[in-house]
Request: fold
Amino acid sequence: MKHILSTRDFDRRFIDKMIEQTDLIANNDGRVAKIANYGGFILASLFYEPSTRTRLSFESAAIKMGGNVISVEDAMKSSSATKGESIYDTVRIVGSYADLIVLRSPVVGIADEVAEFSSVPIINAGDGIRNHPTQALTDIYTLNKELGGIDGKHILVWGDMEYARTIHSIMSLLDHFETAKITTLDISQGEPSDDILSEVDAVYMTRPQTERNMKREGEFFTFTKAMLSHLKKDAIIMHPLPRTQELPDEILNDPRAVIFRQAKYGLYMRMALIREILSE
Ligand code: NCD
Reply:
């Protein structure tokens, strides 16, 4: 049984395969992802933390593939967790109703723990500050697609280095691209220099994760028009979303900001991933 728990479990072969499969699906707008003899599978989304893109893209992916969806969108309040049920029991039960479970939780490592006794594949859709493997695959796909490859490229990762699981996850996948150059900049370190901006092929940003650490609250940073003027013509700006003040509309209107395409690629990547898991 194939669980998707952490980017640490992926090797370069798997990453390349997912890029290739996602490309096939993206180029056909999702039409090639129907799994032979697997129509009617049920995906359960179990979310103990808020989500828009991750949950809805997984659900949309399943429906586009001919599957169905059962969903608990605010499990902390609307599941039996309110009656004291443990997540272990909940996963056991949901696993007897569904063919795979997409799980998001504020608890670091919980996906690995429940996967040990789950009867169906578990997909980690974010576990606290630690990991968000499906966002990382989406981000790697986006870099590859928009830059025509990742090897040899220079990527600036600018944001909440400590608390953003998307950063931890993309960094661990970028380790597989040995010739890529990665520059990191935490919010607390100020703005990127003009020199760095004029050198990089991609800027990957995140918001301050204030819900995980209030100390991030006062840490204001923003991508300005002046910074934009230093970027190469064919550089790209990425962000997993949701954005706050760090990425204002005036930056988003620049064609180098590929943020909404990045979110759309997440749908195709999740279709590829569901197919990969269910065809095992
Ligand atoms: C991210 C997350 O949940 O970690 N959102 C997402 O899944 N696209 C990023 C964030 O919340 O800042």
About this structure: Residues 53-54, 126, 132, 135, 165-166, 206-207, 240-241 surround N-carbamoyl-L-aspartate (CB under 6 Å).
